[in-house]
Design a protein that fits this description.
Length: 495
């Protein structure tokens, strides 16, 4: 039987016919057709997004794009399900070969993954186009040029005096307050008029935040704060560049301290207009810009209004955010893709190996347990250890119910529910144990008298190992355990 499909090349048609005749289980998943149409749609979508995302400095519309593409992917998923559910070797008691269960699961995962992957194309193309339009060092250099040029053009408006703060360091002795030992009171001083007192913790913070410091004695310091000359900046713009954004002190020593009146003022103004055209973004909140509500605007506000630095800053922020979205958040994108694909694959696999009644009863049971666990969490004042412990108890209970199928003589719905939920929770069990361990560790940190020892935070590594371990555990148990349990349960006479 050779079914003609539009847009499908002959070699895919021949592959489809060969799989239908020789490997019906593989053919039923239609993975070859799903991957082909997903790639075809991805190519068209990539080209269209490449044309649309031409201006990286404007605000992103990824929310609307992701909603639209997600809707198309969902429609494709529904169509795939319709064809998938037409043919089920398992429920028709067809020939069952070794590793068919694992193979079917992997085919479902690839098919669903192909449909989910297309949803990430707009964000990937947006990042690619932003990196095409703006270089890493280019943005940093332009930010520094804008700040320096603004100081040159508006020197008469700038404050030149640094703020000083004289501080005296005092030692505060703290003891744990018990019924037998009262708390130690702070020492009071009478000479607070010339300086104020700080402790060693505040001293360390000031060393980090201050622009300059003079040490008078071992306990007396004068901290200096440079005026704000950084009218334009962008968070993490210099994280991936060889250049660094000039700080207030850098601009002061480079421009302000040895200021010379520029003889090429028209050229500087022209350059500011060029940079404005290059980076200025459409302002979504225009009522904030140019407002005369406050008549006593600071020098910073006046300079930002005069040279449209707010809109320029918005454009730079938009470009930087797009440039580094996939560089900084690639692990988040990967996890979103994996868990969506895994969750849908598990649901499809369970539906294919269970009755319709048992499947929806399993969903209802899961919803009821979620509500019950949420109530327990509220009653326990949000203690994470309690919730995670409940989840472990649930899994053990589901596993016990599932294993009871070996001794069952009839098909009971409760056993099917336990088997379905046990299978669904299996890849997440290692994550639950890691989360429980971290929650217990955090709880110990807050206990009175607990001494915190310096240690390396390996939580991210543990979570990664748990994610990989959960996936491996599922694949290892899928064929020799879960598939056999489903076979025995489904083949038994109904209750």
């Amino acid at each position: 039987m050779n079914i003609k499909r539009p847009l499908v090349p002959s070699f895919i048609q021949k592959l489809d016919d060969r799989l239908l005749r020789n490997k019906p289980t593989t053919w039923a998943a239609r993975t070859h057709l799903v991957v082909y149409f997903a790639v075809l749609f991805a190519l068209v979508l990539t080209g269209f997004c490449f044309l649309v995302f031409f201006d990286a400095k404007q605000y992103s519309n990824l929310g609307g794009w992701n909603t639209f593409i997600g809707l198309i992917a969902f429609i494709g998923f529904v169509f795939w399900l319709i064809f998938l559910l037409r043919f089920n070797v398992f429920k028709r008691y067809g020939n069952w070969f070794v590793w068919d269960g694992l193979k079917s699961f992997m085919l479902y995962f690839i098919s669903i993954g192909a449909m989910v992957a297309v949803c990430f194309i707009p964000s990937a193309v947006e990042t690619f186009r932003a990196n095409q339009q703006f270089g890493n060092d280019e943005i940093v250099n332009d930010i520094n040029e804008i700040n320096s040029t603004a100081c040159k053009l508006e020197y008469d408006m700038l404050p030149l005096q640094w703020d000083d703060d004289t501080c005296k360091v005092i030692t505060r002795l703290w003891r744990v307050q018990t019924d037998e030992t009262p708390a130690v009171e702070e020492v009071s001083y009478n000479d607070r008029s010339s300086f104020h007192h700080i402790d060693t913790a505040e001293l360390r913070r000031k060393f980090i935040e201050t622009d300059s410091v003079i040490k008078i004695t071992d306990s007396l310091y004068v901290f200096y704060k440079c005026p704000d000359y950084q009218f334009l900046s962008s968070y993490n713009a210099d994280d991936h560049s060889k250049k660094m954004i000039l700080r207030d002190t850098d601009i002061y020593y480079a421009v302000v301290k040895n200021y010379q009146k520029p003889g090429n003022r028209p050229a500087l103004l022209k350059r500011m207009d060029e940079l404005k055209t290059k980076y200025e973004a459409d302002n979504r909140y225009s009522y904030y810009e140019g407002s005369d509500y406050y008549n006593n605007d600071s020098y910073e506000t006046k300079i930002k209004k005069k040279y449209s630095l707010t809109r320029i800053g918005n454009g730079i922020d938009n470009a930087v955010r797009k440039k580094y979205a996939w560089v900084e958040d690639w692990d988040a994108y990967l996890r979103v893709f994996y868990y969506i694909t895994l969750g849908l694959t598990l649901l499809v696999f369970i539906f294919r190996h269970s009755t319709v009644k048992t499947f929806f009863l399993s969903v209802l049971t899961a919803v009821v347990l979620v509500i019950f666990t949420a109530l327990m969490m509220v009653m326990s004042n949000g203690v994470e250890t309690a919730v995670l412990s409940f989840m472990i108890v649930y899994y053990v209970l589901f596993a016990c119910i599932a294993f009871s199928i070996y001794g069952a003589t009839i098909r009971r719905a409760v056993q099917g529910i336990g088997l379905n939920l046990c299978l669904f929770m299996t890849p997440f069990v290692p994550l639950i144990f890691v989360a429980l361990n971290e929650a217990m560790k955090y709880k110990r940190y807050n206990e009175p008298g607990y001494i915190v020892k310096p240690e390396v935070d390996n939580t991210g590594l543990y979570l990664l190992i748990a994610e990989i371990g959960g996936s491996v555990l599922l694949l290892v148990l899928l064929e020799p355990l879960f598939r056999k349990l489903y076979r025995k349960w489904y083949a038994a006479p109904e209750e």
